[in-house]
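To: structure subgroup
Subject: Chain for Friday's discussion

All,

I'm putting the inputs and outputs inline so they're searchable in the archive.
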Amino acid sequence: MDNTIQSIERNMDSENRFPNIIGSSKAIREIFVLMRQAIETDADMLITGETGTGKDLVAKEIHNQSSRRDNSLIAVSCGVVSEAILFSELFGHRKGAFKDAIDDKTGIFESAEGGTVILDNIDQMPTNIQLILVNTLNEHKIQRMGEYTLRDINILVIAISNRDILREVKIGSFREDLYDRLSKFHIHLPPLRERLDDIPLLSEHFYHQVCNQMPRISEGFGPGIMEMLQQHDWPGNVRELRNEIIQACLIARHGEHIQKYHFSSQINKGF
């Protein structure tokens, strides 16, 4: 992988191709390599990682840098609605297909024609719809609820999960054929505790984000802050770090450096 990274970096423009993803550690550079490969192959994929690692951000960046960027990007969570509603949302329905179907409805897969669909919480998708999704990915066709016509679709599907999908397959809650289909291109995002070198860059990035929104802000980080942040294990990952930086900025007074006591007790404990 190191040789691949060096080869790609030599051919990159001087500016970061993924400016919304912050980091320079070996772990994140390997993710950049996979993202570039994903863009080139235009293959359906699976993105996994702990909560707060930035899976949705990576998915959006892949779409925005791909040949599909001028077409729709639609995200849907697979775990917040009933099976019938999720089916209708994804595939659409014909008028009269069920009691409340008073009009024909175009599903997300049709609406995103030429673009990308992000299926968040794919591990929570009902198994019946998982089977239909396998056929959809294989045949590039969908069938609306209540009709027999097959409709051609041209979309990229990016599935996201914060669970160990292979474990879900083993316990029978996720279809193996769907896992095999999606995991042909798999990006697993490392937790922040495995990319501690990126904490200074991330912290500065979030600090300046707050500064752009709040003209009266502190004067940057005081001594020892980065060392303290790199000692925390960050169970909430990058999202937790962002929230901590925002909190510290809000607590610190105008003209004051951000100090250790501006962070929550979980962070500054022992410092």
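Points worth raising on Friday:
Strands lie at 45-48, 73-77, 92-93, 105-106, 116-120, 141-142, 151-152, 156-161, 186-188.
The chain has a mean pLDDT of 89.

D.
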